[in-house]
């Protein structure tokens, strides 16, 4: 049975975690970014981190446990970055049209082809929860935090009369994430949709819906 995933990664509680565990997890996260979750060995992890095998097995059940923890850390970082970017832009909106203009900026940045690896990474991490209840629970709390943060932004926009008050904030939050993450289907297609046409459609759709 896998060890319980340390969800303190998700609440910026890294200082509460043993520094050896932090080091191993951060190095593993970096190696995953570079080689993929199955593209390196435990020996490479130990060499890159300069930590002994005994220390690894003191803090983790096995090598796969390190990978799971590193994936949770990566996911948490993605979430923090998304929350910060959305909050910084949308809370400064001065009108409904200004809000949509700012949302266009967010969409362009989020949907850029350079972000294709990040979309794939998030899909891979989420898929890893399918056969791990611990990972599902850990990712679930982080995902709920992202959805909740977006919902709060929507409520703030509704209070300013920038967004239709008849729409459910949570539903809007999930919808925004779904069409952004769903662009992964275009990333892997041999015949991709023109990204400018995609941006134009998303811009028109959000203005009509919200």
TrEMBL record:
InterPro entries with a match to the protein in the record: BetI_C, Homeodomain-like_sf, HTH_TetR, Tet_transcr_reg_TetR-rel_C_sf
Sequence intervals crossing the membrane: none
Domain HTH tetR-type: 18-78
Presence of the UniProt keyword Disulfide bond in the record: no
Family matches, as PROSITE patterns: HTH_TETR_2 (PS50977)
Alphabetically ordered keywords of this record: DNA-binding, Repressor, Transcription, Transcription regulation
One Pfam family hit: TetR_N
GO molecular function, one term: DNA binding
Protein name: Unannotated protein
Source organism of the structure: freshwater metagenome
């Amino acid at each position: 049975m896998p060890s319980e995933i340390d969800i303190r990664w998700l609440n910026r509680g890294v200082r509460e975690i043993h520094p050896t565990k932090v080091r191993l997890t951060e190095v593993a996260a970096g190696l995953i970014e570079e080689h993929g979750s199955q593209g390196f060995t435990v020996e490479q992890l130990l060499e890159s981190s300069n930590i002994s095998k005994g220390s690894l097995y003191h803090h983790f059940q096995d090598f796969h446990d390190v990978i799971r923890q590193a994936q949770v850390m990566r996911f948490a970082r993605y979430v923090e970055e998304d929350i910060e970017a959305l909050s910084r832009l949308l809370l400064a909106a001065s009108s409904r049209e200004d809000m949509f203009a700012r949302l266009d900026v967010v969409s362009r940045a989020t949907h850029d082809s350079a972000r294709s690896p990040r979309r794939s990474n998030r899909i891979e991490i989420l898929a890893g929860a399918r056969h791990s209840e611990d990972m599902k629970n850990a990712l679930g709390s982080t995902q709920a935090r992202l959805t909740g943060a977006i919902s709060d932004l929507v409520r703030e926009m509704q209070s300013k009369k920038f967004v239709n008050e008849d729409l459910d904030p949570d539903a809007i939050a999930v919808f925004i994430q779904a069409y952004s993450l769903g662009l992964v289907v275009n990333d892997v297609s041999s015949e991709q949709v023109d990204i400018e046409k995609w941006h134009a459609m998303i811009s028109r759709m959000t203005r009509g819906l919200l």
